[in-house]
Give the backbone structure.
Amino acid sequence: MKLMIDAEKCIACGQCKSVCIRDNIEIDEVAYETGSNCFECGHCMAICPSDAVTLKIFKGHEDRIEKYNPKELPVNYHDLLQFLKQRRSIRWFKKKKIDKDTFDKLIEGAYYSPSAQNEQDVEFVILDKKLNDFMKHVYDIIKVEEEEFFRIKEFGDYVRDNSTKKYHPLLWTGHQLILTFSTDKTSAVIANTRMELLAYTLGLGGFYSLFILKSDEIDHEKLMEFFPGIDKNKHMYSAFIIGYPKKRFKKTIPHKEIKVNYM
Ligand SMILES: Cc1cc2nc3c(=O)[nH]c(=O)nc-3n(C[C@H](O)[C@H](O)[C@H](O)COP(=O)(O)O)c2cc1C
């Protein structure tokens, strides 16, 4: 059994039953759990008007329960769209580093993310001190594609003799990196995107790196040697270089029209 249902508080309104997609709740005099079908999505707990339902795994996490008025949205369409419009990839960063408290604030965005099968297994790595070692590890993996991608060749030259290049060929002027791991690609990307959007609200910026991600595609086993504490069933699905922007952009530019197929 995954739920605790307080019979004293339950008013048998049936709202928990109505939102359960696993048919795991029935109502008699009060609500009760019928089996072990629950995947701990928490819908029953979130909708209960009398605080009668609690998920056992979240006992002790009551400080995470926050009541809100569902009719009052804290952002509107215009403001959010304007915020999205003003986003650009940032590759030129100040020397100032992001501190742990600020990273913790960003991870809050991921904490509230949806995940496939409600696995909630998205895991982050924040690379700072070990960034150069990590990048060498990445190079050892992606160098097999050096002939195909000039950027990887440049990266190789940089690793061999970094004095010849003005900027890092993969990190530009970035010096902190967030990697996102999960068993499910979509869940990782969703979590990372939320973290990224929150970063902009704190005056931070960054860009995604395709070449760092290649290391997982080319040799996952070897990549994971760098992260002995992370479950090998998880893949690295996002690499986001992050920092305080040195350059600020001033206008939007057009994008290719997005095709939408209504069927
Ligand atoms: C999945 C993904 C991978 C990317 N890889 C790189 C990269 O390796 N290096 C880089 O400088 N920018 C990278 N970018 C940033 C794109 O080049 C950038 O989004 C594009 O040039 C448009 O600029 P904007 O983001 O400012 O609109 C990547 C973006 C995405 C979404």
